[in-house]
Design brief:
By secondary structure, this protein is of the alpha/beta class. The protein has two domains: about 5-115 and about 200-250, no CATH class; about 120-195. It is built from eleven helices and five strands. It has a five-stranded parallel beta sheet. Helix 1 links the parallel strand 1 (about 5) and strand 2. The two termini are about 20 Å apart.
Amino acid sequence: MSGVYVFLGPTLPHEDAAALLDATYLPPVAQGDVLRLCAEKPAAIGIVDGFFESVPSVWHKEILYAIHAGIPVFGASSMGALRAAELYPFGMIGVGAVFEAYRDGRLEDDDEVAVIHGPAELGYTALSEAMVNIRRTLSDAVSERVVTAETALRLESIAKELPYRERGYGRMLRLGSDIGLPAAELTAFRTWLPQGRFDQKRDDAKAMLRQIARRLGRAPANDAMPEARFHFEHTVLWDRALRDTTAPAGSLAM
């Protein structure tokens, strides 16, 4: 699908994404990247993963600039879900359970979706587990009677207290054993985990790619994109950023 750009990192392998949507896949989004893409007049922009902490995060205003320019911007799973939950009243299109949880206030902390990952040359392989994935997996384990609701709640609390860089099922289960959670339940969960683990972020990313493919594959009259519902304010700082952002979009590609 010509003219579609998606910012993607550890959430979903590029080959899996490409099987769902013909697009140009770029590294996780950072500040200025969406603004640079606007010069290419893309058919759509999708945001899944994004940099933070050591790299400035994507601005809200550059996403608003894209929407105001008539470019549909989709978000899901990670940074995309966070920005979509903040900007859906202005026309950003959020997709998936993670977006809905942030939008509805059931999730608030950014660390719920944060992971540490490997370098680009290794495909941004995730080296920790997202809290949203742990929550969903524990919920499924309760539904399937692998663990009790009480044990799942204790394990969830243990995982939440860990720094996001250290989150993982192995660490969570070891700490659960240390505080005396039922050994039989921990063993049952460990045995069930390989087939029971649910990756909510990956599931949401796939849903977003499928939605982009569906919506852009239809005639505009049948499935019109939402219009910008705001006035875009050109401040001095914004106009300076616009002048300074001159790198071509192609320089972002992996």
